Amino acid sequence: MAEGFTILIDGKRAEARPGETILDVLRREQVETPTLCNHQHLTPAKTCRACVVELKGSRPLVASCERKAEPDMEVRTDSERVQNARRGVFELLLSQNDVSTAPGLVSQAEQLGAVPDRYRGQKYERGFFDDNKLYVRDFDKCILCYRCVEACGPDVQNTFALTVAGRGFTAGISAGFDETLVDSACVFCGNCVEVCPTGALMDRREHTLRAQGRYDESQQDVVQTTCSYCGVGCQLDLHVDRRRNEIVKVTSPDQHPITLGFLCVKGRYGYSFLEAEDKPEEAVKGA
After folding, report:
1. pLDDT of 113-143, one tens digit each?
2. Do residues 139 and 192 make contact, with C-beta atoms less than 8 angstroms apart?
3. Which residues pair with 6 in a beta bridge?
4. How crowded is the C-beta side of 132, counted as CA atoms within 13 Å?
5. What pLDDT digit, counting tens, does each position of 255-287 carry?
6. Phi, psi of 107 (to 5 degrees)
């Protein structure tokens, strides 16, 4: 095993290991560092710039999620330049995006002292897409973090159904060539939904319940089970509304050694027959 080395973080010595990013070291040292596009199981997209740090010898600020730690590095996370840059990222996002289903983003913005209306101006409505039975896309909530694109690509699914299309305020996640998801290469695994940090991609069931004012995580129990559709052994977390004894969502633990939080279409959405409104009468009687 290669030996570790020392770097300086805000003037304090910290141990780093070969192959680690600056963000890895910051997290181990419990240095508060905001992130949006970063996901532990995905290739760093380096798009949000929320995790930037000041690096001695570097003119621009660097993305800590992508820059590898090197011996004798001197990193600043608490400088005025760094804080202003991070605050500006969140103020731009708050000014032009619907963050009603992004509590993590809002919390980090508040910690940085971001002013939500600093850049408030004309509101660009980028569109709501409801073209399938499993999940919806709300571009007004999209921060273009690229997580869904990475999950749909070589990091997880290898389907390559999603990309970013458009420019400026009109940019959004697309299946390409203005296709609906049904007509695209999408296999509806829902892994893009799983990694979305803002609710721009959301399971249809959750979206419907939220619209009805019936989605309340405080009233949900998480029941663990094993998916029975095949022999892989994926663990499922069933989110059950205890008020109606109704499954409202299925996820998988992101630290599970088999799934890492990712599922196939059957594992994530195969439960929906339990709540179907058009069950055959014979099936209902035999249940």
Report:
1. 999 988 877 777 788 999 999 999 998 999 9
2. no
3. 15
4. 20
5. 999 999 999 999 999 987 776 666 555 544 443
6. -65, -45
**Token pair in block for residue 150:** 């990475």
Domains of the chain in start order, with CATH, are 1-122 (3.10.20.740), 124-215 (3.30.70.20), 216-287 (2.20.25.90)
- 3-class state of residue 108 by DSSP: helix
Q: Is 212 exposed, middle or buried (0-12, 13-18, 19+ CB in 10 A)?
A: exposed
Task: Give every CB contact of residue 150 below 8 A, 6+ residues apart in sequence.
Answer: 39, 42, 43, 45, 156, 195
Share of the chain above pLDDT 70, in %: 95
**Cα 270 from chain centroid (whole Å):** 22
Tokens representing residue 216 in the block:
């309340």
Radius of gyration of the chain (CA): 21
**Full-model pTM:** 0.89
> What is the token pair recorded at 74?
């001197």
CA distance 138 to 125: 10
